[in-house]
Amino acid sequence: MKSEIKSLPTVALRGMTIMPEMVVHFDISRERSIAAVQEAMVEDQKIFLVLQRDQDAEDPGLEEMYEVGTVASVRQIIKLPKKILRVLVAGETRGILKSIEYKTPYLRTEVEILDESDFQSPEDLNGQAMIRGLKDIFVDYAAKNGKMSKEGVGRILEIKDLKELVDEISANIPLYYTDQQEILNQTDFWKRYEMLAFKLVNEVQIMDIKDDIRAKVKERVDKHQREYILREQLKLIREELGDDTTLTDAEEFEQAAKKLKASKEVKDKLAKEISRFKSSLNSPAESGVIRTYIETLLEMPWNKAAKDSQDIAFAERVLEEDHYGLEQVKERVLEFLAVRTLTKKGESPILCLVGPPGTGKTSIAKSLARALKKPYVRISLGGVRDEAEIRGHRKTYVGAMPGRIANGIRMAGVKNPLLLLDEIDKISTDYKGDTFSALLEVLDSEQNSRFRDHYLEVPLDLSEVLFVATANSLQTIPRPLLDRMEVVEVSSYTENEKLHIAVEHLIPKQLEKHGLTQDRLTFSRQAIWKMAKNYTKEAGVRQLEREIGNICRKSAKEILTKDKKKIAVTEKNLGKYLGKEKYSFQMANASDEVGIVRGLAWTSVGGDTLQIEVNVMPGKGEIMLTGQLGDVMKESARTGISYIRSISSRYDIGEDFFEKHDIHVHIPEGAVPKDGPSAGITMATAMLSAITGRKVRSDLAMTGEVTLRGRVLPIGGLKEKLLAAKNAGIRTVLVPEKNKVDVEELSAKITKGLEILPVEHMDEVLKKALVQ
Fold first, then answer.
1. Whether residue 292 is found in the same domain as residue 367
2. Is 306 helix (H, G, I), strand (E, B) or coil?
3. Residue 721 bears catalytic tag
4. Does residue 220 fall inside a structural domain?
5. Which of 122, 181, 168 is nearest to 142 (CA)?
6. What are 290-346's pLDDT values in tens digits?
């Protein structure tokens, strides 16, 4: 086999292999490829065509292209719109890609052109046998494929030269481009012949299998048709004999539609669909879709309502039994019941219970349903991102079904259940639609009397449904949706509330779950108190319940293995069951110190105290902030230092003090990120204390934001912050004057033992915090 090295313009093809002897046209749009074709026309019309391995590569390198391609001559070029060029080429011979000469302005490569013209086809009996064998396989393939013209097949069958036969078959059979590339890669003729024969036989077998599957499917369809005809004949014979006692599906639907309590609009829709069902019995696929739709309409409780309980005393008793504390929530529920009893109207408010995890939001909804004697349906919305989950799928889609709201009403069996929309703040939105906007129609009392589910296609009255939503945070809920709900905050529990919840609810529940009784396992109040304080750090009681369950498991094992009759868990032996303490509170400092002030912070698991430390040292007037502070706290620190500089003359601070000293503000636990608008006065007090050398009271804590002029701004999460101060042994707490109303709303159990002083200006803060 002869070969020569030649430099040729090159086009890297995507998803297409061109073989020798193949005449084909293809479209190109890359600028390099267009330039390569134009250069080929300028030279001798010769171009090298090679398949690229990665179909998405825009600028393939040597490693990203197959080694073997085809040298072809360009026959025709047609310019198409949008800078596309249609090229007609004729494949001539194989070429081996050696190297890339350059890529700009077009791809040019060095190609080893293989000349196979000197190959002599065998003329002995072996050669004849190979030709006949290949032709037989090709005839079988062409007959089953059905895509090749008779003229083309006849022309190939007239070829008597073996090499020409192999090349013509390779160029004309519609194989997948990777299979064609495998044949092209074979520069050895005998291996190429074997591979071509193998692939043709493979294709014939695949087509045989496809024909077999098609025949079985047809046989099954014919069987269904035969059964339908026989069934109809049997029905006719029974009617003739007068034995027709069985109703058809359509007749059953008609009888159910007559008994259904629904509006005229729904009944008209049902009648229309039943009529369609009768005419679609010859089409099993269509009748199946219509059947499902009719059954869904019949199952919906259009005008079926549950009678609400109006016994307020019973409702109050149920709420008190199921939950300790949560007075605001219980009061709101009883108010709703009282108004409903007086007005005798079905319209209900949309309550949104907001609070940290584990505070009993979902169980409140369950208790409310029990108090009202209503059916209860919980719909979890966490992670829902498809609008069709709320509004339903249109019937045109395969596997269409009603949305979660309509399905919840169907499950309840009445049109006025309590529907809990759990984790409404965890809904996400993507390209499939805005899920929050879909909920607007559901939760708007002005619109939801005619809520349209895409699947049902008839209005569904949601005005009598009592919707209760739960959320951990309001920040992710859009404002328009929030405006349609009445927000009821479920705050974190105090230690005292956790103690009562554990005694009245958690311990009995876990004892029953683990096969124990109060005679065999008891908990002292001090042990429960210590569990809540030193083994859990949470706003709710989930972790506390897990720790109680942990003790129950260990106790069950101890009772069986050590034959103990009774186990008492006390403060002293608690470590035996739960190990070492996991959390501890940073108690108030023993003595007054300079530059150290105790601040109060709100977290998702309750309140906490932050000790802010400030050091002053000789330097160039820099302010260093450490302890993983967020942007808001950094700005508060800078605002505080600006305020201190504005009042420096009152405290005899030298004019050049801030130019010759560095101030370092640090909040310990540097690995924990901290941010929020409530540490301004704390940082300002600590900085002034460090600058002037005056001590700060160790039994005092404070919370509030500061302005440049020294005004103290209000904050949130006051209940949790005061609880944290109390746990840390703080006696006096400074809070913003505008939070005075929040203090008055707190129960005496929280404020007992705390001196809460409202402050309006930094002058008051410094006067009360600094030791005179």
1. no
2. coil
3. yes
4. no
5. 168
6. 888 888 888 888 888 888 777 788 888 888 888 887 777 788 878 877 887 787 665
